[in-house]
Amino acid sequence: MPQQIAINIKTQAYHRMLGERFTLHDCTGGYAHLTDEERAGTRVLITAGFKGATGAEMDELPNLGLICCVGTGYEGIDVQAAIDRGIRVTHGAGVNAGAVADHAMALLLAAVRCIPHQDRLTRSGAWNYTETPRPLVSRKKMGIFGMGGIGAALARRAAAFDIEVSYHSRSPKPDLPYAYVPSLLELAERVDYLVACVPGGAATQHAVNAEVLAALGPRGYLFNVGRGTVVDTDALIAALQAGTLKGAGLDVFENEPEVPAALCAMENVVLTPHMAGNAPEVQEMATDLMCDNIAAFTAGAPLVTPVPEMKALAPAG
To answer: Does 152 score more than 60 pLDDT?
Structure first.
């Protein structure tokens, strides 16, 4: 009988692809429908960073040994609870970097060049050369907050647009040709575009606050393709309404799927529904990577992409 796995996210592509290889239990609505035999036989849980798994949820599957997160971020998984229970955790490190970087550039182009507004005008028949000229995207400065796989991919794309890149992250990346800035506030002061690519969690909660937005200034743009909790939403709305920030492009929000009405009402904000990493190619790569991790777990071999907290632990089958 194929390996039994539970999945608690709704994305049908993962249900389809994983269902072709494993006995899949749909647990998007919880675990109450599982029989005792199914609970005992399920050793793998598939989840996503925004959904995750608490210790209590892990206890629903008494023989759970592996949690696979489809994306890079895994803030919704209680990793310490997993460690306490001897459960391994993996994530999709790097699989969506290109897609998210593409989307970040699309948000930037759309916001700076005011593409959604111009699209609506053109469709309405309001062909109007008297519209306010939009600034160049190129020959500007971009600050990237978080120089992981997504940040590095974004930096390469920005460089192709003749944009000068600098960054702030937990530590310098000496192998990269971009200037490291030791504080987020200083980075915001230096750039025209600030792009947040960092994961969620306590360490980044409201890192982009009123002070950082003020430093970015009335000609600056903020873009967030990391997690909604990274940005203080109230401070962002206040800055946009006061004109102390020029514009923004957001793919993530603090209380998804709720989006503040104030943001929706603004012409200088471009919004997308947390879909930057959604691409068929990404879903295929993520599925292959999860299958590789499941195979390694089953064989008692080292996991392919354990989360950092797991790297010091010995393999377990």
So the answer is: yes
